[in-house]
């Protein structure tokens, strides 16, 4: 895989523009990305593992098998925790740094994994899911920001998308683990308990990684920040990066007021950026991705395949497609662009959801044949194939780069909270909605939402490919006040 472009900054084009930066050109940056991305792996593993574990939890606890609401609660309680974790994660990141936020998330995740594995009843299991969700919520805010702040702008999209690859890789790993433990006593306990292993690995390696250089420079230690930056940038870029951080630090000192959550509403520039970022996060969930990932074995059984093991095997293939699609997205996002990739992705998603809903309509009429059962599986596969390269990667990448430095933590936390709230609504309502109106109409509704999402991206989301953070800020200033308007925004008033 090669991702190359001309140098920008986090940055700038300059006299050294003949040099190229590729995805693998700096092993140090790639190492930071992979280790930070284990937070994404935890996110993905938790998303995928519960879909298989739920099949066996229902076998162990009769009360769960008799209640769709309890099944939805076991799935979605992690999302409640993630909502809280994401909301607090922005503040934790800004106050204590990206590294400490990651270490805290790992500790909470490990405790949650132990509680889930040892749960004597579904209610203790639900508490464990809450703890794991808290950790995943903090990690979902921290990892993209940490990676973005340690990435040159030319490959920032690909590197941040590596976190999404870790999410989809975690989902694929969870299905492998689910299959491995299907014949082992205590199936679901092993499935859920194994989730603590990646958290232990990340905690250990994170102890030896530096803090985000931008956070260090602006909040703590300039010399340490420069030391980290020197490992990321060649000398011809290092001086420009330091100059830019000096300007950002001076602007922060000149601001009279501390950063406040209400500024996101009051400042027109930040409000427009947050609308685009939070809208992308909401549509990522309301177009159904985690419905597919949480309930894919159940959906496969709805399509006419009754065997638990066969359902898990087909779901493993779906998860593999998700991971492969994310790799495609990493290659495309810094060449094709964020906006075009999202629009192309949504176009395919709409078609796939139409195929899936039509197949399930036939099933609900009682005339399901083997052909339509496999057509439903084809719809699932096409959905993942189109979703993962675009709407799987673009929302997290865009949200890591569209906010001003001072607001990156809280806006990233708020938009991640929107993602988790949307995720919760979908996960908590899917089975009940499918029982009430049928699975065909449910997926048709998701298709209609995908159409709205297409219009939203077309109207509200700008292209940020290859732009510096300053250039992205300029986009919002021009959208707020018009091109050439010298009116000062909130961030520039002293």
Q: Can you walk me through this structure?
A:
With 494 residues, the chain is mostly helical. The protein is 77% helix and 1% strand. The chain contains 22 helices and two strands. It has a two-stranded antiparallel ribbon with strand order 1-2. The termini are far apart.
What is the topology?
Elements: E1 4-5, E2 21-22, H1 27-36, H2 38-60, H3 62-65, H4 68-96, H5 98-118, H6 122-149, H7 153-180, H8 187-193, H9 196-206, H10 213-219, H11 222-232, H12 235-254, H13 263-266, H14 268-286, H15 289-302, H16 308-333, H17 338-364, H18 370-387, H19 394-399, H20 408-437, H21 439-460, H22 469-481
Antiparallel strand pairs: 1-2
Helix pairs in contact: 1-6, 1-7, 2-4, 2-6, 2-7, 2-8, 2-9, 2-15, 4-5, 4-6, 4-20, 5-6, 5-8, 5-9, 6-7, 6-20, 7-16, 10-11, 11-12, 14-20, 14-21, 14-22, 15-16, 16-18, 17-18, 17-21, 20-21
How would you concisely characterize the structure shown here?
This protein is an all-alpha fold.
């Amino acid at each position: 895989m090669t991702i190359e472009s001309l140098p920008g900054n986090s940055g700038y084009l300059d006299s050294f523009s003949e040099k190229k930066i590729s995805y693998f050109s700096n092993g140090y940056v790639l190492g930071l990305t992979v280790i930070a991305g284990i937070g994404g792996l935890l996110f993905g593993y938790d998303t995928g593992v519960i879909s298989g574990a739920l099949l066996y939890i229902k076998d162990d606890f009769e009360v769960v098998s008799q209640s769709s609401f309890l099944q939805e609660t076991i799935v979605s309680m992690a999302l409640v925790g993630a909502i809280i974790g994401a909301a607090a994660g922005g503040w934790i990141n800004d106050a204590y740094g990206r590294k400490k936020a990651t270490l805290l998330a790992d500790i909470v995740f490990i405790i949650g994994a132990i509680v889930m594995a040892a749960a004597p009843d579904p209610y203790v299991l639900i508490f464990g899911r809450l703890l794991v969700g808290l950790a995943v919520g903090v990690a979902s805010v921290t990892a993209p920001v940490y990676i973005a702040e340690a990435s040159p702008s030319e490959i920032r999209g690909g590197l941040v998308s590596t976190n999404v690859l870790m999410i989809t890789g975690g989902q694929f790993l969870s299905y492998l683990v689910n299959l491995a433990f299907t014949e082992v006593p205590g199936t679901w306990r092993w499935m859920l308990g194994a989730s603590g292993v990646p958290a232990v690995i990340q905690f250990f390696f994170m102890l030896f990684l530096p803090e985000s250089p931008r956070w260090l420079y602006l909040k703590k230690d300039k010399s340490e920040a420069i030391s980290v930056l020197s490992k990321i940038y060649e000398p011809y870029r290092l001086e420009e990066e330091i100059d830019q951080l000096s300007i950002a630090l001076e602007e922060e000192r000149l601001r009279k007021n501390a950063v406040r959550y209400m500024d996101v509403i009051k400042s027109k520039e930040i409000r427009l950026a947050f609308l685009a970022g939070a809208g992308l996060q909401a549509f990522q969930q309301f177009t159904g991705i985690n419905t597919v990932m949480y309930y894919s074995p159940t959906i496969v059984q709805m399509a006419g395949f009754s065997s638990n093991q066969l359902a898990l095997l087909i779901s493993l293939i779906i998860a593999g497609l998700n991971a492969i699609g994310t790799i495609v997205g990493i290659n495309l996002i810094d060449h094709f662009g964020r906006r075009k990739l999202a629009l192309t992705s949504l176009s395919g998603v709409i078609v796939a959801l139409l195929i899936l809903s039509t197949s399930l309509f036939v099933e609900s009429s009682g005339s399901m044949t083997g052909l339509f059962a496999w057509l439903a599986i084809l719809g699932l596969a096409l959905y993942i194939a189109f979703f993962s390269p675009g709407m799987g990667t673009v929302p997290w990448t865009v949200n890591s780069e569209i906010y001003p430095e001072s607001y990156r933590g809280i806006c990233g936390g708020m938009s991640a909270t929107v993602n988790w709230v949307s995720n919760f609504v979908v996960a908590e309502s899917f089975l009940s909605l499918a029982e009430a109106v049928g699975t065909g109409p449910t997926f048709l509704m998701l298709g209609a939402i995908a159409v709205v999402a297409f219009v939203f991206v077309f109207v509200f989301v700008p292209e940020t490919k290859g732009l510096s953070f300053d250039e992205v800020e300029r986009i919002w200033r021009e959208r707020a006040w018009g091109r050439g308007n010298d009116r000062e925004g909130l961030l520039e008033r002293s």
